[in-house]
Design a protein that fits this description.
The complex is a heterodimer of chains A (649) and B (150). With 649 residues, chain A is an alpha/beta fold. Chain A contains 26 helices and 18 strands. In chain A, the strands form five sheets. Chain A has a five-stranded mixed sheet with strand order 2-1-3-4-5, covered by helices on one side. Chain A has a five-stranded mixed sheet with strand order 11-10-14-12-13, sandwiched between helices. In chain A, β16 and β17 form a beta hairpin. In chain A, α4 crosses α5. Chain B contains seven helices and four strands, in the order ααααβααβββα. Chain B has a four-stranded mixed sheet with strand order 2-1-3-4, with helices on one face. In chain B, α3 packs across α4 and α6 runs parallel beside α7. The chains are: A alpha/beta (649), B alpha+beta (150). At the A-B interface, α3, β10, β14 and α19 of A face α2, α4 and α5 of B.
């Protein structure tokens, strides 16, 4: 574990680093900073990615194996647990830094491979292609034949501003964050700028909310600052509940102090003395990390009473969400914090005027806040230099699904989706073809291949019906049934609808019924005519408009999105389901039609015995036959047949 | 119960959810009795406490099994047909999703995204994660747990 002398570094870091305006160090200071940053190490350091993705991939077992390896070989080395570097499909990632050598990184180091990897490093006997890459570090000897991390396709197109520490520093160490320039912006803000100046800087930078709406952050802060209130609140929304999105989790797990610093600056800018981080309850690891990080920041005097003697005081707490998707909506989040059921309230008044306990409250997403320290450090022009005309800066995405590589990335605004999918994620897995990219989970849209050249930009995405704030990108291959996917999202939304307003509560349930009738086969087909199903789709379209126009909150307003976008781009698939009762991808199990190959069937009778509908007939030792009208397509016979005689179309 | 209440001496209405979370963390689930006591302590009507507790997915009114199985139903896991894993477990344990087996040994839950989208499908049994399992592997794991006696 980190063997740092925390008490020793504390005063040094605060006085010599944070309070150092010029950023120029004398040699002694620079040497000590290099030690904390681990640019210079005196004994080997082994880094293991133990973010949630790492743990799921087996990093805990690797960690134990590495500890054993060190004690068995009587080595003196440090083991540091870091967050994920973003390349989640490479987890568990293990990095090693030997004194004088550049830090080298290995992929997929499960416990059985750990000893081989460490042997190779310590004996300098690397196989070609064994290492993932090495970090560029000036003054350190490079490993021959190992690519630099920034040359790897996954990283080469990325522009890492808020993720620059991801996977490199330990999230449990405030020292490392400060040594890499952290908390300097907070110091600068509270001592040099009045609150309205900060709102102005953020507004100038063009930073827009990364949580969905895309509202200019500086403007939102200004409204809250200008509204009179006894006690203002600043809230960080980390209730990331979209299935398939994990950027916020990753941000907190890799660099929690960046979020805390951004939140503290935001609180100062709006005049709040209380800040809350609302974290989704399922995120156990981020919860622990945040608690530790906040207590460290308090210990260093970066939070609490009279920060840096400026007179600005801030208390920060973590609140655990209780597992309601709707609480990601800002007004629902506020009611949840007030100890009520998380039901949204109609806007206006906006929370910036009347929010938590009726006081001016600003709610920003994790990613938005993580951008704040960088803007104050380098200035609004620096931030503006990246991106497009209307969308500035970078954007986090989580890439999951059927792509070759998966994980989370930070890309400049203006990049195209095809570039993300093909250049960064390496295209579709197993040589399959791309069917669509799903952006934004249940409130998002499906983007067909023809639209993938859309640049990443708030306006351009609005044109294709998507919201940029939602950064969950799921890659779909040819084996995906778009109708079934739409049904899956509708099922999710039906479950998560809070039930306050009728269009969303009843509408989602009605839409699910219609999708069910398309994707499932009822026992009695005669009452479910093709015409009825067709009418259902027409009804669904008009229902979608009603839900969109009359729902109270964003969850309801966006609920029809997945269905509408699938209908728009993949209408022929719906028609195939409705008229032909056929699912080409074979995902809608109920629509499968089973047949028995007479050449392969030897009449063992097993399928007949297992069939719950008695739909299989035939005598022993003669080929059997499936009665189509009785078959429900459950597929039990398919599993039961030992001779692969049963197939489906 | 008093040690829970000591943490929230101000009896603010906003304390309700954290208080319930603290209690459930220790007791494993909520009961009518707990709801009553919380209502008394915070001076919130019991029906409102109950309303809040039933609104959020996190709160349970039934104990979990000794082995609590969570199957992810996030988008990425859905694409890797996590629903067939869920069905397989239901079949093996003869319980429905969201219920507890009669011997209180197993409980099964489908959860929304666990954040392991790169490792789909993800299944979690108590604190251990399983990823990239085949259905046969899964049956093996469940069977071995079934045979385990403690």
């Amino acid at each position: 574990m980190p063997e740092q002398d925390i008490s020793g570094n504390k005063a040094f870091l605060i006085d010599k680093i944070i309070r150092n305006y010029s950023g120029i160090f004398d040699n002694l200071t620079a040497g000590r900073v290099a030690m904390i940053r681990r640019d210079k190490v005196t004994r080997p350091v082994i880094f293991i990615g133990t973010g949630t993705c790492g743990i799921i991939s087996g990093a805990s077992a690797t960690l134990i194996r590495v500890k054993n390896y060190i004690s068995d070989n009587n080595l003196s080395a440090d083991i540091i647990e870091v967050g994920c570097n973003g390349y989640c499909s490479a987890e568990p990632v293990l990095d090693v830094q030997l004194p004088g050598k550049a830090r080298i990184s290995f992929r997929n180091v499960t416990d059985d491979k750990a000893a081989d990897v460490l042997d190779a490093v310590f004996h300098h006997s690397l196989q070609p292609g064994q290492a993932l890459g090495q970090y560029r570090q000036t003054g350190l000897e490079e490993w021959p034949g190992v690519p630099l991390m920034e040359q790897i396709p996954w990283f080469s197109q990325q522009q890492r501003h808020i993720l620059k520490n991801a996977g490199i520093i330990s999230p449990a160490s405030i020292d490392e964050y400060i040594a890499r320039g952290g908390y300097k912006s907070l110091f600068k803000s509270v001592l040099n700028y009045p609150a309205d100046k900060i709102c102005e800087i953020i507004e100038q930078s063009g930073l827009r909310g990364r949580g969905g709406g895309g509202f200019p952050t500086g403007k939102k802060w200004k409204v809250a600052l200008d509204t009179a209130g006894d006690q203002k609140f600043m809230i960080c929304n980390a209730d990331e509940s979209d299935p398939g999105a994990f950027m916020d989790r990753a941000m907190i797990e890799t660099d929690p102090h960046r979020v805390i610093e951004g939140l503290a600056i935001a609180a100062y800018a709006i005049g709040a003395s209380q800040a809350v981080i609302y974290v989704r309850s399922d995120y156990e690891n981020p919860l622990v990390i945040l608690e530790t990080a906040i207590s460290q920041a308090k210990d260093y005097g970066l939070l609490g009473e009279n920060i840096f003697g400026s007179g600005f005081s801030l208390s920060m707490n973590v609140r655990q969400g209780a597992g309601a998707f709707v609480c990601g909506e800002e007004t629902a989040l506020i009611t949840s914090l007030e100890g009520k059921r998380g039901l949204p309230i109609s806007k206006p008044p906006y929370p910036a005027e009347k929010g938590l306990w009726g006081q001016p409250t600003v709610i920003n997403n994790v990613e938005t806040l993580a951008n704040v320290p960088g803007i104050l450090e380098h200035g609004p022009l620096w931030f503006k230099s990246t991106g497009t005309q209307s969308s500035k800066g970078t954007k986090l995405f989580s890439v999951a699904g059927k792509s070759v590589s998966t994980g989370f990335i930070e890309v400049p605004m203006g990049i195209t989706f095809s570039s993300i999918i093909n250049d960064i994620a390496g295209g579709v897995k197993d040589g399959k073809t791309l069917k669509a990219a799903q952006l934004g989970g249940p409130s998002g849209v499906c983007i067909p291949p023809a639209q993938l050249d859309t640049p990443l930009d708030y306006e351009a995405l609005a044109d294709i019906g998507a919201a940029l704030g939602l950064g969950g990108l799921v890659i779909l291959d040819e084996k995906t049934c778009m109708v079934n996917l739409a049904r899956y999202f509708m099922d999710f939304l039906r479950n998560e609808s809070c039930g306050k307003c009728i269009p969303c509560r009843e509408g989602t349930s009605k839409m699910l019924d219609i999708l069910d009738s398309i994707t499932k086969r009822p026992k009695e087909e005669s009452t479910h005519e093709t015409l009825e199903r067709f009418k259902g789709v027409v009804q669904m379209e008009s229902l979608a408009e009603v839900i969109r126009d009359t729902s109270l909150c964003g969850l309801g307003k966006n609920a029809p999105n997945p269905v509408l976008s699938s209908l728009k781009w993949f209408r022929e698939e719906f028609e195939e389901h409705i008229f032909d009762r056929r699912c080409a991808a074979g995902v809608c199990h109920d629509l499968r039609k089973f047949y028995i190959d007479v050449d392969l069937c030897n009449g063992c009778n097993i399928c007949q015995k297992k069939c719950p509908e008695i739909a299989i007939v035939g005598t022993l030792k003669t080929p059997h036959f499936i009665i189509e009208s009785k078959c429900t397509g459950c597929g039990i016979c398919l599993e039961a047949c030992k001779f692969s005689a049963i197939y489906f179309k | 119960m008093d040690h829970f209440f000591e943490k929230y001496p101000l009896k603010k209405p906003g304390d309700l959810i954290p208080l319930l979370q603290d209690i459930q963390e220790e007791t494993g689930y909520l009961t009518d009795e707990i709801i009553g006591k919380v209502s008394e302590h915070l001076h919130i009507p019991a029906n409102r406490v109950y309303g809040v507790a039933t609104f959020y997915d996190q709160f349970r009114f039934k104990p979990r099994g000794r082995y609590h199985i969570r199957v992810c139903r996030g988008t990425s896991c859905y694409l890797c047909s996590s629903s067939s894993y869920l069905k397989e477990i239901e079949k093996l344990l003869k319980i429905q999703c969201g219920t507890v087996s009669r011997d209180k040994k197993f409980s099964l839950e489908a959860v929304s995204c666990m954040g392991g989208c790169s490792q789909s499908p993800v299944i979690r049994i108590n604190t251990t994660y399983y990823h990239h399992l085949s259905i046969a592997d899964l049956s093996g794991i469940i069977r071995s747990l079934k045979e385990k006696t403690e």
